[in-house]
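Good morning,

Attaching, inline, the backbone tokens for the sequence recovery test we're adding to the shared suite. The designed sequence is right after.
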């Protein structure tokens, strides 16, 4: 009887864990967010219509200054993006109290796009019709380090089906959203912010918590990077990002 009880208990625990794991896996893939943080890169599923790049708080701070004021390790999140020809790009300005400028050039250093973004606003969608690697940047963003340049890249492939997406290809729910975005929020507020996202029809596809570069986390992770997906119109997604950002305690 004891042996049978233990066996049945084991089966129940394993089955329960498996079911929970499947449900969680359909909702959340932490590797996507951690890859963005650690590799500063993301390959986007080819069906995505719009991808929102985050300009994070303190994005303009130079890592060469004596005391790092950045929260995350890159001026744009993700800093490097690979997309298919059908995906448009949007920038979201989350750098509190600052106006950010985005200048995009092609492989021949020709300027093909300029945008000025006030805090907590989004740019209009940008479609890149030609394949190749584009560079976007902002120079003279930091008075204390005039040589520092905020810089990111967008690589547009000729064939969208050739993208080896960083999303889990075994899980179709992660590959079927019209719009994908990233946002950074304090880890202590993660439940509150994910609830707001859910209430507004935005799914959390991945999350990764880390200790910000200011090292103010009291020994633990104090910032969380969220990867978001939704089929809502992109302007509604932008409104949700603005709603959340307006409540963040950054200064």
């Amino acid at each position: 009887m004891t042996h049978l009880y233990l066996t049945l208990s084991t089966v129940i625990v394993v089955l329960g864990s498996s079911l929970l794991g499947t449900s969680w896996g359909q909702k959340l893939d932490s590797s996507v967010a951690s890859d963005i943080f650690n590799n500063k890169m993301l390959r986007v599923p080819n069906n995505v219509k719009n991808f929102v790049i985050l300009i994070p708080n303190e994005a303009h701070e130079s890592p060469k200054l004596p005391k790092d004021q950045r929260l995350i390790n890159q001026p744009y999140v993700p800093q490097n993006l690979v997309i298919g020809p059908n995906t448009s790009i949007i920038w979201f300005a989350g750098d509190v109290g600052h106006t950010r400028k985005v200048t995009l050039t092609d492989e021949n250093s020709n300027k093909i796009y300029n945008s000025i973004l006030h805090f907590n606003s989004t740019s209009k969608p940008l479609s890149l019709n030609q394949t190749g690697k584009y560079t976007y940047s902002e120079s003279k963003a930091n008075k204390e380090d005039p040589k520092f340049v905020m810089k990111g890249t967008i690589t547009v492939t000729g064939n969208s089906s050739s993208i080896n997406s960083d999303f889990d290809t075994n899980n179709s729910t992660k590959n079927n959203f019209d719009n994908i975005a990233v946002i950074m929020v304090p880890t202590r507020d993660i439940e509150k912010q994910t609830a707001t996202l859910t209430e507004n029809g935005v799914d959390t596809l991945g999350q990764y918590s880390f200790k910000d570069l200011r090292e103010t986390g009291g020994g633990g992770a104090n910032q969380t990077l969220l990867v978001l997906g939704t089929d809502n119109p992109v302007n509604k997604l932008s409104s949700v990002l603005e709603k959340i950002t307006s409540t963040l305690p950054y200064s």
